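Ligand: glutathione. Inputs:
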Amino acid sequence: MSTSPSYELIYFNVPGLGEASRIILNLAGAKWKETNPEWPAFKPSTPFERLPVLIERSGGTEDFVLSESEVIERYLARKYGFISSDDPKLAAKQEQVRAQFSDARALATEVFHHKNETHRQRLEDQIKLIVRKHEELLEKNGSNGHYFGDKLTYPDIVAYVIINSLRIYKFDVHVNEENAPRLNKLYKLVEKAIAEVAAKKQ
Ligand SMILES: N[C@@H](CCC(=O)N[C@@H](CS)C(=O)NCC(=O)O)C(=O)O
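Predicted complex:
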């Protein structure tokens, strides 16, 4: 008899590279817990000496252990229907939109985490480009607050996470209601979905 798996997400107590996976697990109603380990003491226990790490336990003898935040996200997103499982072309398009955020995140880490000001202009340019292109994509999909169809998918979740980070860093001037109305609509829909799941849990 197969039982539904349980997950452990091991990460630091910050949104960072774990946030999209947390949201996917919550929206999916998966059984999961988070562990914030002592660091660097825990470092050698991870596959590549970095976090996040996902552990899936399905009742078998061996746990499934996965590293690399975007791989973890994709694994969970595919498993729980936030990436198309029956249309490889649609899945690729969904992953393409998500991948757009990776460069911006890397630059934001340099500017805000490593205090490397030389990347600030590139980050700003990257954000402006994403906002321009993604507003177009969202408009093409009917300005309904989703990138694909009429439901929440993987890139919606990551867009929400990225906008949140920009707000935390007070770098969201190019993603406000006025210059990014459709991204803001998307943000509110993801926020609402997260709140609904949280309310049900209580
Ligand atoms: N490409 C990796 C990067 C992982 C990474 O840089 N993790 C950082 C935290 S955000 C980390 O483990 N830092 C602690 C260390 O390197 O000792 C991923 O996306 O998972």
